[in-house]
């Protein structure tokens, strides 16, 4: 996580803290400032900064400096939009408080806590809180384009996963890695066919468009807890809005449930939750949305428990797909063969989850885009080819 902070960055950070934060931050010498670099970010540089121990009683004695860096991901987000979203969500209490703004980044409060974990998925208070905050996020008004769904789908399935990467999978570097290490899921399934199926399925599902985080993994969800003898108080914050936009409601729901109960922070592997295990989150989400929008929200069939659970299941497959495509991209562009291990893990999770979810055959009734019905595969019929995705245009039947 930590790496040496350059002399140039140390001086720049000190001047930023001194100028934007003032107070105790302006009274210390540059050599007294404690700086730790975080290497987890892909689109920016993160620096954790601390005042000397003698200033521990200062309200914001720990802060985070985030600098946006020129890299290959910058074409996928708008820095002005990111700043606007961060400021508004900070004011709503959904994101860490922003303490300062400069030309290439922000200074925010340091959340002395941890990432949302598997144990939180079994904690009713934590589940209720994250569902409420997701509802508040989805109902937020942001000064950005109001529908970026097609742009997002194009970025994921075409721009990001371009012809060069497809060729690498068919006959290039990635293909060689798959063959050399005998990655079971990649050998068993046709990734390009699955991408095509998933994209069409998402478009036909017609999930409502809301303001969406779009990168709702555990490392972007922070928990701060205060324990006393009588209660457990929890604060929950979302971070990293580089890819946030108005997009499908199901994206954040799918991301949450794709990592439900998994002990690993990223690329975990586990059993997909049952409908009854999904309900505490879904119920809390619906209740908060009803508080925000009134009874008309819950009276709309599009917002029923069944509909939200179905959307979460479809977009959980999307979350697995995005993870594995990102790992393939890293393996190919950065020549990091170890990333294919994570790609296989995500692909395997998608494969197992598809079975756990019960995705054998669905007939979607698209009248008013509100109803769907699950059909059980005939037990007397030969077992369908495992995880082969077919779409019948005449019946709108989605079979796996």
UniProtKB/TrEMBL annotation:
Keyword Cytoplasm set for record: no
Single biological process term from Gene Ontology: phosphatidylethanolamine biosynthetic process
GO cellular component labels: cytoplasm
Keywords, alphabetical: Lipid biosynthesis, Lipid metabolism, Phospholipid biosynthesis, Phospholipid metabolism
InterPro entries attached to this UniProt entry: Kinase-like_dom_sf
SUPFAM superfamilies: Protein kinase-like (PK-like)
Molecular function terms, GO-annotated: choline kinase activity; ethanolamine kinase activity
Pfam families per the UniProt record, alphabetical: Choline_kinase
Family membership noted in the UniProt record: Belongs to the choline/ethanolamine kinase family.
Name of the protein in its database record: Choline kinase
Classification lineage: Eukaryota, Metazoa, Ecdysozoa, Arthropoda, Chelicerata
